[in-house]
Amino acid sequence: MNRFDFTPYRRSTVGFDRLFDLLERTTSAGGDNYPPFNIERRGEDAYRITLAIAGFRPEDLDITAHQNLLVIQGRKRDEASEGQLLHVGIANRGFERRFELADFVRVENADLHDGLLVIDLVREVPEAMKPKKIIVGGQPTLQAVEDKQADAA
User: Fold this and answer.
1) Nearest CA to 110 among 28, 48, 153, 68?
2) What is the DSSP letter of 151?
3) What pTM, to 2 d.p., does this model score?
4) Tell me, what DSSP letter sits at residue 140?
5) C-alpha span between 77 and 117 (Å, rounded)
6) How far apart are CA 55 and CA 95, in angstroms?
7) What is the pLDDT of residues 71-130, one digit of tens each?
């Protein structure tokens, strides 16, 4: 049985319900593994998703970034072959691949080259959401100390 119980973690965390729901959905979903993909961390706030989609052209793809969801769809195109196909081993089927994105992650760039779709993602936390130091009411505020010798010279 591949079911994990996240109840102990839910009790000791606040505001991570969406993360635990995502983990539970991911572990329970079998799903299709086409097209294969890689997720790469390229820096502290930079990521790259690479999908192997040989045979697709840019006009066959639809990439949509919703609030916290990236949806990549490939549409199968009908091509008449010049001869009779005896074996079809190259997948040219339509697909839909979904990626849950963290808060403040946006798509920066998408490029198709050599059968690989590369999507660069960047996390940009707004200034209002960054952590700030809170000074307790009874503490004096710190002030810069001036160097009097430097002023005299």
Assistant:
1) 48
2) H
3) 0.64
4) P
5) 17
6) 13
7) 999 998 777 678 887 887 776 688 999 998 888 899 999 999 999 999 999 998 888 877
Q: What residue ranges in 44-115 does DSSP mark as E strands? A: 46-52, 61-65, 69-74, 95-100, 105-113
- Cα distance between residue 105 and residue 92, in whole Å: 30
**pLDDT digit string (tens) for 13-40?**
666 666 767 676 665 555 567 899 999 9
Pairing assessment for the beta strands 46-52 and 116-123 based on DSSP bridges? antiparallel
Tell me how far apart the alpha carbons of residues 30 and 25 are, in angstroms, rounded to a whole number.
Answer: 10
Q: Which residue from 130, 110, 137 is spatially nearest to 121, judged by alpha carbons?
A: 110
Tokens for 62, please give them.
């639809």
Alpha helices in 6-91 (DSSP H): 7-12, 17-28
- Side chain identity at 117, as an amino acid letter? L
Q: 69 - beta bridge partners?
A: 100
> Is omega for the bond preceding 8 within 30 degrees of 0, making it cis?
no
Q: Are 21 and 4 in contact (CB under 8 A)?
A: no
